[in-house]
Amino acid sequence: MGEEGARILEHEVRELVRRRGLDPIGDREGLSTLVTDAVGDYATRASVGVVPPLEDPDAAARAVTDAVGGFGPLQPYLDDPEIEEVWLNAPTHVYVARRGVSELTSTVLTDEQVRDLVERMLKTSGRRLDLSSPFVDARLPGGERLHVVIPDITRSAWAVNIRKHVVRARSLADMVRLGSLTAQAATFLDAAVRSGLNVLVSGQTQAGKTTMLNALAGSIPGSERVISAEEVWELRLPVRDHVALQTRPANLEGSGEVPLRRLVKEALRMRPDRLVIGEVREAEAFDLLIALNSGVPGMCTLHANTAREAVAKMTTLPLLAGENVSDRFVVPTVASAVDLVVHLGLTRAADGVVRRQVREIVAVTGRVEEGRIETAGIFDRDADGDLRRGDGMPPGEDRFERAGFDVRALLADRRAMPPEAGPGTGAPRGSAAGPWAGAAGTGVGARAAVGGRAGARAAASPWATR
User: Fold this and answer.
1) Tens digits of per-residue pLDDT, 4-56?
2) 140: exposed, middle or buried (C-beta count within 10 Å: 0-12, 13-18, 19+)?
3) In this structure, are 328 and 260 located in the same domain?
4) Cα(160)–Cα(107) distance, rounded to whole angstroms?
5) pLDDT, tens digit, 9 for 90 and up, residues 271-326
6) Which domain range does residue 65 map to?
7) Are residues 296 and 360 in the same domain?
8) Number of separate domains in the chain
9) Which of 42, 74, 77, 45 is nearest to 60 (CA)?
């Protein structure tokens, strides 16, 4: 398209938006209609030589829509479902991550464009970025997470990261289809969540912790009330009764800050049946332990290299809450409050594609020996990279029993099971055997018989038991 024609068209659309009082970000449909009409009118005038012609009217319409109602040259990357993250090291160095592989794009911006884009991104968040506060975390209207750092913290250019939460899994069944874990491990985790076990999801950056947390939340019974707390809203929990809380930075006067610790405390006053914390990094680990120890089931994520390191980290982070908090209290509390650790890792294939997989599932037995918390491996990857059943057993077998699950039958050796057969064990009494019953049969240890009405339920959809 002609550059001059595009500039004229964009100026006219902005003027129309101003005159009509249209919200270009909130009313995308209205903006699209306005742009379509403006392009048609512009083409009519261009045909008689009043204005320069547009080489590609459709491309011009998309570019103007992105510039006025989106985030300009970055909008196509945000709309691309294959792209997971966009970041700028400098206006001329715009990168994207596509399925875990980073690539330098051909997009070239100016310093002024970057500042204008960031200002537009922060407009709806209510958060600020200046010399007194050179970092900012915010959520974009589309759900993306924005992080910006400005000079003189950076050397010269603004550093911008836009992390998209590409929803590829809303349930543990989706995680199985994506190859992140086996059907048997997923069925066990489904039973663990339904039974009210406390789950810690650990892993390195970009390992898929938030996705796993969302998938685990898909197993929370529909009758439960869930309160979630995050620094910036990222979780999209597939639950019915849900209140999402977000931290707030201090204002210009240095007051009004709402840290994650405060949110955890307030969440306990909101009648939660389940507590979900987006990520534990600092002293909020202490408040989370207090909540879990009070009988409220919960889940959270944590950065760690292994599942056992995650348990060790949970014993040190609460010490940041104050000098009066000692390891004599924290260590036994972690041992009794945390039940399972699901650890994720990144595996890079020969073609460079990165796969996110569950590396191990570890049980916290509740026993402490010489200040160290004992753990037991339930599932881990073997030398061939397959997720295999370990020797450990989860704590709280009575909780599985009360929820109607036979955890020992569920965790029975399944290596001889044919690949096409699903897990199908540990389902509640009288229900289909597991969340994949309809797609994959029942397997060993199911409490519901296959035949009659139970067999008919098993032949229904995979989520017939929900």
Assistant:
1) 888 888 888 888 888 888 887 777 788 888 888 888 888 888 888 888 888 88
2) buried
3) yes
4) 14
5) 999 999 988 989 899 999 999 988 899 999 999 999 999 999 999 999 999 888 88
6) 3-70
7) yes
8) 4
9) 42
